[in-house]
Write a structure and sequence with these properties.
This protein has 8 helices and 10 strands. The protein is α/β, with parallel strands linked by helices. The chain binds zinc ion.
C-alpha cells in the first residue's frame, strides 16, 4: 500500500511526464537509442484525439489550399518545414502559417539523412534552420515558446560517432539556456508520401488506425514502391498523424480526414496541447 502511494506520488514528478523527448540528464548512445516506437504520443492513444502534422513544405500550390481548408474547419496543425529552400514566396507562406495560429516547426535545413552527416555539419545546419524559424517568427510578429523538430525521414542516432539528440540538447542550451527543443515523430503514418497513394487511401489509412481494419500502405520491393494493405488489429485510436503538404493527393485526403473527424467525433488538437509535447512551466525564450 505504501509502495503504491509512493508510485502515485512519484509518477507526476518524473521527468518523462514533464518533457517527452529528448529527456534531460541522459546521454544518448549512437546505434542504441534509435527508433520511433518509444516516442509516440501515448497520452493520445485510445482517446480519439488526433494531431495533424504536415512535413516538407511550404509548397506554393498545396500549402495555401491546405491552410484554407484548415481555416474552414477551424482546425490548427503543425507544419515541419525545411528552411534552405525558402524563397520570398515560401517565406510569406511560413508567415501565414504562424499568423493563422498554426505551429511552425523545424524539419532541418535540407531534407537529408542526418545519419550520413558528421557532427559538425549536423550541428551547423540544425542551428541554422532554427535561427531561420526564429527570424520568420520575428517577421510575422508571432512568438513561439521553444520549438518542435522532426528528423527528415525520421532518421537519427545511427551515426557511430555522435548522437543527434545530445547535439540537439547542446544547441538548445546554447539558444534557450535549457532543454526546449521537442522532437516529434508520429503515431499514424498515412503513407501519403507513397507515389501511388490516392486521397481516399490516405484517409482509409487513418480510419484503420482509429477503428481497426485494412490500411492501404506502401512497401519497397526490388527498389520499387508497391502498394499493399495491412490489417491493423490493435489501432492506437488517436495520436500524431504524419502528412505532407507537398503532395497533391494530401489536400483532398486531409479534407476526407476532417470530414471523418466531424462524423466520428474525433477531436483535433494542436501539438502543444499534447502532454508529451508541452513545455510546461519552462520559459523557453530564444536568447
Ligand atoms: Zn520530410
Amino acid at each position: 500500500m505504501k509502495f503504491a502511494l509512493f508510485i502515485l506520488l512519484f509518477i507526476p514528478l518524473s521527468r518523462a511526464s514533464i518533457k517527452h523527448f529528448p529527456i534531460d540528464d541522459y546521454d544518448y548512445r549512437p546505434g542504441h537509442d534509435v527508433g520511433i516506437k518509444t516516442y509516440q504520443a501515448f497520452s493520445l492513444h485510445r482517446t480519439n484525439k488526433i494531431v495533424l502534422t504536415f512535413d516538407d513544405g511550404p509548397h506554393l500550390i498545396q500549402t495555401p489550399k491546405i491552410l484554407d481548408l484548415l481555416k474552414s474547419y477551424n482546425v490548427k496543425a503543425t507544419f515541419f518545414i525545411n528552411t534552405a529552400p525558402l524563397n520570398q514566396e515560401k517565406l510569406l507562406l511560413a508567415h501565414r502559417i504562424l499568423k493563422e495560429g498554426h505551429i511552425l516547426a523545424g524539419h532541418d535545413y535540407n531534407h537529408r539523412d542526418n545519419n550520413k552527416e558528421d557532427e559538425d555539419l549536423f550541428r551547423r545546419e540544425f542551428l541554422l534552420s532554427l535561427k531561420d524559424i526564429k527570424n520568420i517568427e520575428k517577421e510575422a510578429g508571432v512568438h513561439q515558446k521553444g520549438i518542435y523538430f522532426r528528423f527528415p525521414f525520421g532518421y537519427y542516432g545511427e551515426n557511430p560517432h555522435y548522437h543527434h539528440l545530445n547535439v540537439i540538447k547542446d544547441v538548445s542550451h546554447e539558444i534557450y539556456g535549457e532543454n526546449c527543443i521537442n522532437v516529434s515523430f508520429w503515431d499514424i503514418d498515412t503513407k501519403d508520401w507513397g507515389p501511388t497513394m490516392s486521397s481516399e487511401e490516405i484517409a482509409q489509412n487513418v480510419l484503420a488506425h482509429m477503428e481497426g481494419g485494412w490500411a492501404p500502405t506502401v512497401i519497397s520491393e526490388n527498389n520499387k514502391w508497391k502498394k499493399i494493405r495491412i490489417k491493423i488489429k490493435n489501432p492506437p485510436q488517436g495520436g500524431v498523424i504524419l502528412l505532407h503538404d507537398t503532395k497533391k493527393e494530401t489536400f483532398h485526403g486531409t479534407k476526407l480526414i476532417l470530414e471523418m473527424a466531424k462524423e466520428k467525433n474525433w477531436e483535433i488538437i494542436p501539438l502543444n496541447k499534447v502532454k508529451e509535447f508541452s513545455f510546461k512551466n519552462k520559459e523557453c525564450d530564444y536568447k
